[in-house]
Amino acid sequence: MAGWTVRNGRRDRRMSAWAVRTTAAAACAGLALTACGSTKDTGGSTTAAGDGNGKVGVILPLLTSPFWQSYNDYVPKMAKSEGVDALKTVNSNSDPSQQITDINTELNQGVEGLVVAPLDSAAIEAGLDQAERKGVPVVAVDVAPDKGKVAMVVRANNVAYGEKACQYLGKQIPSGKVVQIMGDLASVNGRDRSEAFRACVKKNFPKLKVLEIPAKWESDAAASKLDTLLNSNPDIKGIYMQAGGVYLAPTLQTLKSKGMLKTAGQSGHITIVSNDGIPQEYDAIRKGEIDATVSQPADLYAKYGMYYIKAAMKGETFKPGPTDHDSTIVELPSGILEDQLPAPLVTKDNVDDPDLWGNTVK
């Protein structure tokens, strides 16, 4: 997930069958971004549909994480810049059942498009089916659904998150124990990050021993389980937090309570890598409390969520390949298309980069 802060972090995506209408195929080659979507050579095309000017519902997974708070703030700005008539966002409060109710409520209000950040990759199918029956296209943000149809998934490569964390820790720590505080494994994000980190360590850094804390995007679970683990493993040398928005504060508080929070350069410093790119992580990097994070693009999630839903309401479709915004559209095993946005590693060397979205949040 994208740096959540409570439980149930799940999501996925799929192509939507809403575009089964009379086809008026138009080749995309040579057309501008607004006509063909984000692909350079990938041959986006348009089918007969609306003009893209209908109302759009935006459903959030939760608002207790700094990451999702930032995304929520970006939504109206990006909707305006992309010419999307977005309704006020709806917060599902970490409840997958509530999220299905929220989708149904938005559909009953007559929205012509939905941008949803799924809480549960499997449960979201019920909401997607409701949208499909009404002919309303859906764009999934941050998480892909296991089943159901979406026009596009806007997401960063979560496998790369785990691999980047592994590579950073492996290069800093020759041998010893490292902990990964995992997200919900029922979420594709939690699975991707966990499996990638585990596999990378096994392949590249066999002298590291990985200990794991399944925390389901819950801050309390992360704190209590880390406390217990440290009691029996006081020689931990590294920590990988899969969601800074959820795990940063409890991790630092737990280490501090045990006298184990040493800043970079001090004897006994535990190397910590996170995921999210929120301002609080950047402050912790500057203080030397943590060492790195992978920046999930909250701003681009909002921007391209709006971009793709407008395109979908027009009947535009896309193909795998490079885009003109430094990302790549890939086809998942399920056949769903996912625009994998860039997510840079942030360390003390580039933490003050003004282009990082976490440095633009006031």
Number of strands: 17
The percentage of residues in β strands lies in 15-25%
Q: Ends: how far apart?
A: 23 Å
Give me the secondary-structure category.
alpha/beta
| Unreliable spans | 3-48
Strand/helix succession:
HEEHEEHEHEEHEHEHEHEHEHEEEEE
Helix content: 25-40%
Number of helices: 10
Shape, per Cα inertia axes: elongated
User: Average pLDDT, to the nearest integer?
Assistant: 87
Q: What about the largest sheet?
A: 9 strands, mixed
Rg is 20 Å
Which features would summarize this protein structure in a list?
single chain; 362 residues; alpha/beta; six-stranded mixed beta sheet; elongated
Can you describe what's shown?
The chain is an alpha/beta fold and 362 residues long. It has 10 helices and 17 strands. The strands form 3 sheets. Strands 2, 3, 4, 5, 6, 7, 14, 15 and 16 form a 9-stranded mixed sheet that branches. A 6-stranded mixed sheet has the order 9-8-10-11-12-17, sandwiched between helices. Helix 5 (158-172) runs parallel beside helix 6 (188-204) and helix 7 runs parallel beside helix 8 (244-257). The radius of gyration is 20 Å and the shape is elongated. The two termini are 23 Å apart. The model is unreliable at 3-48 (pLDDT under 50).
